[in-house]
Inverse folding.
C-alpha cells in the first residue's frame, strides 16, 4: 500500500480545487473522474486512502467501493457526496467505509482523516 | 271480462264464423258437383250399354235372316228348312223385343239430356228398328211362302213323275217325254243355280211345251208345275229386293250405331262444362264469403278496438298532464278489466307521487345544504392535496438544487481555504479566484433555470433571425474538441422573445453536447416550407433514447443526468408553447423538432 491519495469526482473543477488543497499540503495526489476509472486507478496504484463522490456516470461510488473492497479488503475509502442514498450508505458503513462526508467539506476535515489513517 | 279474454274471444269467434261459412259452402257445392257428375257418368254408361245391346241384337237378327235364306234354298230338305225358319222367327221376335226395350230407354234418357243430336239419334234408331222389323217380317213371310211353294212343287213333280210313268206304260205321250224331262231339269237348275241363263232356258222350254198338244191331265199338271215355278221365281225376285232393302237398313243402322258413340260423348262434355261451372260458382261464393266475413270481422275489431283503447287514450292524456306537472287529474271508472286496474293503480301512483314530491322537495333542500357542505369539504381537501403535491415537488426540486449547489460550494470553500494556505503566491490565488468565479456562475445558472421555469414573464415579441441567434449561442458555449456542430446554411425569421428563444436553443444544444459526452456530430436544420411555421430540427448521432424515457422527457423534474434540475426540457417546452409552437422528439437519429410561428 503506497502513500498516495486518490480523489474521485466527475466535477472536474471541484476535483482540481480538491487536488490543489492536498498538494499544497505536500501530499501525492492522483485523480479519477468516475467509479470505473477509480477502480482501475486503485488497482494500478493502490493508494493509501481514497476520497470518492457517490453520484457519477458509468459507475457510481457504491459500486466502485464494493469492487475495490472485494479485491482489497484493507482499502480505505471515504465518501464525499452531495446527495446520498440512505440504504446504500448503510450497507457501505457495514462493509467498512471509513467516513461519509457531505459537500462542501472543509480541507481541515480531509487532512485530519488522512492523518488518522496514517497516510 | 278482461281484455285478454276479450281478445281471445274475438280471435276465436271471427275465424270460427268464417270457417263455418266456408265449410258449409264448400260442402254443398262439392256434393252438388259430385251428384250431377255421377248422374252424367251413369247416363253415359247406360247409353253406351243400350246401344251395345241394340247392336248385338241387330247382328243376331241379320244372322238369322241369312241363315233362313240359306236353309230355304235347300229344296231336298224343305221340311227341315221350314222348321228352322219358324224357330228363327221366334228368336228374331225376341231380339226385336230387346232392341225395342233398349231403344226406348235410350230415347227416354235422350229426352232428359236435352241434346238435339241425341234425340235425333234415338228417333232414327227407333225408326230403323221398325223398318228392320217390318222388312225382316216381310222376308220371313216370303221365305215361308217359298217353302210352301217348294213343298207344292215337290208334290206336283211327284204327280208329274207318276203320270209320266203311266204314259210310258201306255206309250201315249212318249214323244213329248224328253221335253217334259227337259222342263223339270230346267226348273231344278233354276232352283239350284238361279242365273239368267237358266231362266231363259226355262222360258224357252216353257214356250215349247205350250205349243205342243197335251192330254188334259198332262196339261193340268204342267200348268201346275209352271205356275208354282213362276210364283217361286216372282217370290225370289221380291225376296232379293227385300234383302237389298234389309241390307240398306242394316248398313244404315250399323253406321248410326257407330256414330252414336260420338254423339253421346256430348254428355260427357256437358258434364265437364257443368263441373267447371260449379267450380267457378263455388270459387265466386267462396270469394264473396271471405270478403263479407273479413269486412265483418274488421268492423267488429274496429268497434272493440275503439272500445278497448278509449280508456288507454284517457290514461295517456292523464299521464301527459302529470308529466307536465299537473297532478290534479280525474277520470271515469273503467270497469274491472286491466284498464280499470291500471286506472286504479294510476290514481294510487298519483297520490303517492303527490306525497313523495312534497317529501322530495323537503329533502331536496336538505340535500342542497349537504351538497354545499360537501363541496366546501372537497375544495378544502383539494387544496390540501395540491399543497401536499406542491410540497413533494418542492422537496424534490430542493434536493436537486441542493445537490447541484453543493459541488460549486465545495469548490468555493476549498479554493478559499487554499488561498488562506498560500496567500503569497499570486498565480495560485488567481487560479483559485477564477475557480470561485466559475462556481458562483454555476450556482447563478441553476437558480436562473429554476426561476425561468417558475416565472411566467410575458413575451417580448420581435422578429428574430434564427441563423444569427444560433451562431451567438454556439460562440458562448465551450464545445468539446470531439464534437462538431453543423449549422444551417439557410435562415428564417420567427416572431418571438429573443431571450427566451436563446434559452430554448441553448438548452437543446447543451443537452445534445452532454448526451454525446466527448465526440459526435450535432446537425441543426431550418425548414421554411410550412405556411405560418418554421421547422427547426436538432439532430445528434449519439445513442437513441429508450422508449420508456422518450414519453416523459418533457415532464418537469424528469432527468437522466446525474446533475441538473430536471427543468431544462420542461422549460424548453414551456417556452415553445408560450410562442404557440410545438416541440417533439424522435429516434433514429435522435431529433428534437421545434415548430415556431413565422411572419408569413
Amino acid at each position: 500500500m503506497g502513500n498516495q491519495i486518490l480523489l474521485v469526482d466527475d466535477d472536474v473543477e471541484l476535483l482540481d480545487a480538491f487536488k490543489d488543497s492536498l498538494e499544497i499540503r505536500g501530499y501525492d495526489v492522483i485523480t479519477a473522474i468516475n467509479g470505473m476509472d477509480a477502480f482501475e486507478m486503485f488497482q494500478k496504484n493502490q493508494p493509501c486512502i481514497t476520497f470518492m463522490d457517490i453520484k457519477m456516470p458509468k459507475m457510481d461510488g457504491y459500486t466502485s467501493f464494493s469492487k475495490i473492497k472485494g479485491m482489497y479488503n484493507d482499502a480505505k475509502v471515504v465518501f464525499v457526496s452531495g446527495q446520498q442514498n440512505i440504504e446504500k450508505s448503510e450497507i457501505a458503513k457495514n462493509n467498512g467505509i471509513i467516513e461519509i462526508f457531505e459537500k462542501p467539506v472543509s480541507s481541515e476535515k480531509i487532512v485530519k482523516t488522512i492523518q488518522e489513517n496514517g497516510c | 271480462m278482461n281484455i285478454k279474454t276479450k281478445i281471445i274471444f274475438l280471435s276465436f269467434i271471427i275465424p270460427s264464423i268464417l270457417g263455418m261459412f266456408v265449410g258449409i259452402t264448400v260442402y254443398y257445392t262439392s256434393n252438388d258437383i259430385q251428384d250431377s257428375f255421377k248422374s252424367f257418368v251413369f247416363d253415359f254408361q247406360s247409353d253406351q250399354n243400350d246401344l251395345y245391346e241394340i247392336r248385338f241384337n241387330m247382328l243376331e237378327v241379320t244372322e238369322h235372316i241369312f241363315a233362313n235364306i240359306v236353309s230355304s234354298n235347300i229344296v231336298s230338305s224343305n221340311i227341315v228348312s221350314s222348321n228352322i225358319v219358324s224357330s228363327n222367327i221366334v228368336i228374331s221376335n225376341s231380339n226385336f223385343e230387346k232392341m225395342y226395350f233398349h231403344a226406348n230407354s235410350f230415347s227416354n234418357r235422350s229426352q232428359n239430356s236435352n241434346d238435339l243430336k241425341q234425340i235425333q239419334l234415338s228417333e232414327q234408331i227407333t225408326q230403323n228398328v221398325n223398318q228392320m222389323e217390318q222388312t225382316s217380317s216381310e222376308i220371313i213371310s216370303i221365305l215361308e211362302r217359298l217353302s210352301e211353294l217348294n213343298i207344292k212343287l215337290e208334290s206336283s213333280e211327284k204327280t208329274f213323275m207318276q203320270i209320266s210313268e203311266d204314259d210310258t206304260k201306255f206309250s201315249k205321250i212318249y214323244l213329248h217325254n224328253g221335253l217334259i224331262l227337259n222342263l223339270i231339269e230346267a226348273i231344278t237348275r233354276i232352283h239350284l243355280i238361279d242365273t239368267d241363263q237358266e231362266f231363259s232356258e226355262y222360258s224357252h222350254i216353257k214356250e215349247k211345251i205350250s205349243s205342243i198338244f197335251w192330254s188334259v191331265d198332262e196339261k193340268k199338271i204342267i200348268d201346275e208345275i209352271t205356275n208354282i215355278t213362276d210364283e217361286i221365281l216372282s217370290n225370289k225376285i221380291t225376296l232379293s229386293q227385300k234383302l237389298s232393302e234389309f241390307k240398306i237398313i242394316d248398313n244404315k243402322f250399323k253406321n248410326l250405331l257407330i256414330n252414336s258413340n260420338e254423339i253421346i260423348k256430348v254428355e260427357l262434355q256437358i258434364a265437364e262444362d257443368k263441373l267447371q261451372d260449379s267450380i267457378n260458382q263455388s270459387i265466386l261464393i267462396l270469394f264473396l264469403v271471405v270478403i263479407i266475413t273479413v269486412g265483418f270481422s274488421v268492423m267488429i275489431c274496429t268497434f272493440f278496438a275503439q272500445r278497448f283503447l278509449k280508456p288507454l287514450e284517457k290514461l295517456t292524456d292523464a299521464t301527459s298532464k302529470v308529466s307536465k306537472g299537473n297532478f290534479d287529474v280525474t277520470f271515469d271508472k273503467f270497469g274491472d278489466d286491466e284498464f280499470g286496474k291500471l286506472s286504479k293503480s294510476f290514481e294510487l301512483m298519483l297520490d303517492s307521487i303527490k306525497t313523495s314530491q312534497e317529501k322530495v322537495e323537503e329533502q331536496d333542500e336538505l340535500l342542497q345544504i349537504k351538497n354545499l357542505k360537501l363541496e366546501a369539504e372537497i375544495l378544502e381537501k383539494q387544496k390540501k392535496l395540491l399543497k401536499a403535491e406542491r410540497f413533494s415537488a418542492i422537496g424534490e426540486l430542493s434536493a436537486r438544487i441542493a445537490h447541484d449547489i453543493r459541488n460549486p460550494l465545495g469548490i468555493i470553500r476549498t479554493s478559499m481555504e487554499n488561498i488562506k494556505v498560500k496567500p503569497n503566491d499570486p498565480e495560485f490565488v488567481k487560479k483559485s479566484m477564477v475557480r470561485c468565479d466559475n462556481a458562483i456562475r454555476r450556482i447563478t445558472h441553476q437558480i436562473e433555470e429554476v426561476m425561468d421555469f417558475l416565472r411566467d414573464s410575458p413575451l417580448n415579441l420581435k422578429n428574430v433571425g434564427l441563423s444569427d441567434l444560433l451562431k451567438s449561442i454556439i460562440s458562448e458555449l465551450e464545445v468539446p474538441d470531439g464534437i462538431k456542430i453543423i449549422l444551417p446554411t439557410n435562415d428564417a425569421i420567427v416572431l418571438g422573445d429573443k431571450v427566451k428563444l436563446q434559452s430554448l436553443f441553448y438548452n437543446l444544444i447543451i443537452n445534445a453536447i452532454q448526451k454525446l459526452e466527448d465526440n459526435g456530430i450535432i446537425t441543426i436544420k431550418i425548414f421554411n416550407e410550412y405556411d405560418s411555421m418554421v421547422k427547426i430540427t436538432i439532430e445528434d448521432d449519439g445513442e437513441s433514447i429508450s422508449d420508456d424515457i422518450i414519453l416523459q422527457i418533457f415532464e418537469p423534474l424528469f432527468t437522466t443526468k446525474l446533475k441538473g434540475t430536471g427543468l431544462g426540457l420542461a422549460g424548453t417546452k414551456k417556452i415553445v408553447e408560450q410562442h404557440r409552437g410545438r416541440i417533439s422528439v424522435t429516434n433514429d437519429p435522435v431529433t428534437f423538432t421545434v415548430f415556431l410561428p413565422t411572419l408569413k
Q: What stands out?
A: Chain B touches chain A at residues 399, 402-404, 406-415, 417-418, 421-422, 428, 431-432, 435, 438-439, 562-563 (CB under 8 Å). The longest strand of chain B covers residues 520-527.
